[in-house]
């Protein structure tokens, strides 16, 4: 057993994020056959990712604030602390903090067969994408 070395908080790159977003890696693979990465990601109000997908899907557990997750059909799902959102492999999506509040989530994903294909980054979302048609998962009973 080992206690993991704490890495410095990193600011995510503007090519893939709009606004201020920071990441703290919690766990990363040590051995070639390990795939899981876990990180805490913090978004300033209104900050967002670009469109992207993951080879093996992704789990996002909201721990603070209100998260917004967008789908290509224009639906925006609001997720609250204690809720976990799953995006299936290959599904285009984005995540963001709701306007007016910081948001934090724990991101959990497995590397693709080729680690370079774990996340496929695409274009930045538009203000219309961010506004979308909002669905509050608490009201949906999920």
TrEMBL record:
Transmembrane region(s): none
Protein name: Cupin domain protein
One Pfam family this sequence matches: Cupin_2
Taxonomic lineage: Bacteria, Bacillati, Actinomycetota, Actinomycetes, Micrococcales
Alphabetical list of InterPro entries matching this protein: Cupin_2, HNL-like_cupin, RmlC-like_jellyroll, RmlC_Cupin_sf
Biological source species: Microbacterium terrae
Domain of life: Bacteria
Domain Cupin type-2 as annotated: residue spans: 40-97
């Amino acid at each position: 057993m080992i206690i993991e070395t704490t890495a410095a908080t990193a600011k995510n790159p503007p090519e893939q994020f709009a606004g201020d977003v920071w990441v703290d890696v919690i766990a990363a693979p040590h051995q070639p056959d390990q795939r899981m990465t876990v990180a805490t990601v913090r978004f300033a109000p209104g900050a967002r990712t670009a469109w992207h997908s993951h080879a093996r899907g992704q789990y996002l557990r909201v721990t603070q604030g209100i998260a917004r997750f967008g789908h290509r059909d224009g639906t925006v799902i609001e997720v609250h602390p204690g809720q976990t959102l799953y995006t299936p492999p290959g599904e285009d999506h984005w995540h963001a903090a709701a306007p007016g509040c910081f948001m934090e989530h724990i991101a959990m994903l497995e590397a693709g067969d080729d680690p370079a294909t774990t996340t496929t980054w695409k274009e930045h979302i538009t203000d219309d994408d961010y506004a979308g048609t909002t669905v509050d998962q608490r009201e949906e009973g999920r």
